[in-house]
Specification:
By secondary structure, the protein is mainly β. Strand 4 and strand 5 form a beta hairpin.
Amino acid sequence: QAQLVESGGGLVQPGGSLRLSCAASGIPFNRYVMGWYRQAPGKQRELAARISSGGRTSYYADSVKGRFTISRDNAKNTVYLQMNSLRPEDTAVYYCNGFPALDYWGQGTQVTVSS
């Protein structure tokens, strides 16, 4: 059974940084394209970034390009999201999942950017 456990969120001031982690189990992690998704209050969930199974290529939504960096460690079945220069509009619950997404979603981790 798939399990995705996100961590690393919190409250940060505008311009600050956070590093999110997602530990995966129950899936052949090194075969999956993995993504970080986010859902802001009152909005639909959107893909923020994704990374190829081998970690060599990545994609970023225009809204996070140049500020966020996705990476993965296949030996640890973990995917990361380094978020720099955070803005209030980055406030959301952040989730990791495959791309395309699996039916199962973890609990997510809340990121709040506010002064």
